[in-house]
Amino acid sequence: MSGRNISGLRELHGIGERVAGRLVEHFGSEDAALQAILEGDIASLSEVNGVSHTFALSLARDVRARAEGCAISDFLKTKEALDLYSRLLELIKTFAHTSHARDKLDLFYPFPASRMDLIEERRAFVAEYLELADTFSADTEFLNLLSRVKKLRPVPGNLRVRDRIIISGDRKTLDAARERFQEFLSVQAVEDFSEFVDLARGYSNVIVFDDTYLSFDLPEGIEPELFQDPLKAEFWQILPEVELAFFAKNLDCILACLNIASALRAGGFGFFEELSGVELENLKTALLKVGEDGKPIEGLDSELDRLETALKNLDPVLTSTLNEANQRMNRTLEASSLTLSGQELIKLVSGGMEIKDLLAKELQRVYTGEIEAVKEELSEKLNFQKQEKLMLDSLFSDEISYPLKTEQAQLQLLRQKLNMSLEKSRLSRKRELAKILSTFHQRVERLVREVLDFDLGFSIACFAAQFQLNMPAIISEAGIGFEAGENLFLKARYGEIDPVSYSVGKTSLSPEGLENRVVLLSGVNSGGKTSLLELLAQCVVLGHMGFPVPARKLELGPVEEFYYFGKSKGTLDAGAFETTLKQFSVLSETSGKLVLADELESITEPGASARIIAGILEYLARSEESLGVFVSHLSELILENTWTEIRVDGIEAEGLDSSLELIVNRNPVYNRVARSTPELIVERLLRKTTGKEQEFYAHLKDKFKN
Ligand SMILES: Nc1ncnc2c1ncn2[C@@H]1O[C@H](COP(=O)(O)OP(=O)(O)OP(=O)(O)O)[C@@H](O)[C@H]1O
């Protein structure tokens, strides 16, 4: 489908300068806005300030109508026809699991028979899903998955990576880097090495695209990462956070889509072949590592865990280890005494040795031993690796001190070193994950779109499954006939209702010789005439939408225009009467019209009504392609006013049940004027009484004979 005929927003009815401007701003360009309207993206359209849901829908329908060359009003010719269609649509929408499907259903409307191409296209689309619903429409787990699927949300606009910077002294590099990355991190120009160092100091991760400053002696703690070319660098390398944020933001929806794909495949239905079974599992595994905050979740990476724990425990472990060592040293010192050898005594006396040195030598042994023990304990408890162990050496001075204490500057360095290692590991984990996910990104976008579109067809199929609908057979001559039809509105309300069979026009279901295209439907009060007329309307509207219909079997001839007139409440005033008559004037044109009218006689006084209805029926009967069903209590009077052969069918009461209620056979009897309710009531009284009273009722009953 293309949006032919439309080149600008302003061509659309209801779009003025201001709304057009807002649409362009919201979607980025006029084309994108038109595309959203064409695709019927009601949800996005209604996000635009000044565009209500109803307006968005009318825009979408308008554009759709132009694209298909066929509008909703081409087929649905009266307000009541449109109302009935809307009620059907509301019912179908209750089966949608996503707002995407709910919105898109609004764009499905019936087409006239002359656009059989569109009807067939839709029938093919719907038919694909019917079998699916047999397997999945009652699978609550599957349905829950579907209701978790939404349009993908973009990466939050406020995402900023604050601990990373791109630095360069080269204009071209800067321009390219800004173009690609500036939205999410800082890209800064520097003039010289000292500026470079000053800037770099404030970030735990510095990215450069040339080695200008790498040959200098970089201070401790600054380790820039070199990438070759800002245009060619992989996005996931420079900014893995963006990829991760996209997946994190849509995690639930994407996982649901993957599980839907798996479930469909397990059920024997091919779905989204772009992802193989193995890839599907790989993606699921990767997604399970993404936290909701967009960071890789904890507990999956031993190196990260090791560094995090080491940093967290550094201070408490240090304090407790030193405490214990100090106590040990204390005890050792208290228990110690100094015994001098003869040699030492001589040296001391002769001045060849100071008493202080002698004591220091002794103490040094104890001190060094304790420091070694402390380092060992620290590196064991903090699970240190080689490099970190080496850093412990400079943590304690060689000079004896008691109590034992650490060099604060060195401790700070160790902490920094651990922090840097942690940040590095974190970044490389993010990159690993982002790299895997980036290979799936576009396919995931397509997958979600496909699942959303799937729900559109699937909702229709669920609706069909719930009401046991069937695809109608399209026939070539004017006629509608069905077996075991069930009015959807009644069925939705009551659950169980009586199936009805009926046929007008040339269908294989009309009785031999009774293939009239124009019929009057008579019947007892509350017999089900209105319901039957509504059922006919439902079948015609759904059938022309390319949808299945509420009947076990249905033959549907071509209808070009559908006129539906509901029962009016009481006599119309002159103006309303005139308007109604005008609507019928279209019958003067020939083409396949279907007119369903309910008790049209109430629009004016009975005598005039009968004449008018007779006239309308005559006009309808003239066209070989038109059909009409008129519910009326005046069938006999109407027949008296016409020479045209018009069939009258009747919905009759079969008798009375135990509580004296009428038992109605909802199936019209062909070619029979139904007895009216008053007649049945007289008959009931006649049967229930005796003697003089019964004679009275017998007299009344005679009055009903011609
Ligand atoms: N096929 C059916 N199965 C079960 N109940 C039905 C069926 N058709 C109609 N009914 C019941 O009968 C009620 C009256 O039906 P409906 O209004 O169609 O009768 P009607 O013949 O048009 O009546 P009236 O002559 O008063 O206009 C419905 O509300 C419904 O409860």
Automatic annotation (TrEMBL):
The keyword ATP-binding applies. Keywords: ATP-binding, DNA-binding, Hydrolase, Nucleotide-binding. GO terms for biological process: mismatch repair. GO terms for molecular function: ATP binding; ATP-dependent DNA damage sensor activity; hydrolase activity; mismatched DNA binding. ATP binds at residues 523-530. Residues 516-705 form the DNA mismatch repair proteins mutS family domain. Gene3D superfamilies: 5' to 3' exonuclease, C-terminal subdomain, P-loop containing nucleotide triphosphate hydrolases. Its cofactor is a divalent metal cation. SMART domains: MUTSac. Has ATPase and non-specific DNA-binding activities. Belongs to the DNA mismatch repair MutS family. Archaeal Muts2 subfamily. PANTHER family: DNA MISMATCH REPAIR PROTEIN MUTS FAMILY MEMBER, DNA-BINDING PROTEIN MUTS2. This is DNA-binding protein MutS2. It comes from Methanosarcina horonobensis HB-1 = JCM 15518. The lineage of its organism: Archaea, Methanobacteriati, Methanobacteriota, Stenosarchaea group, Methanomicrobia.
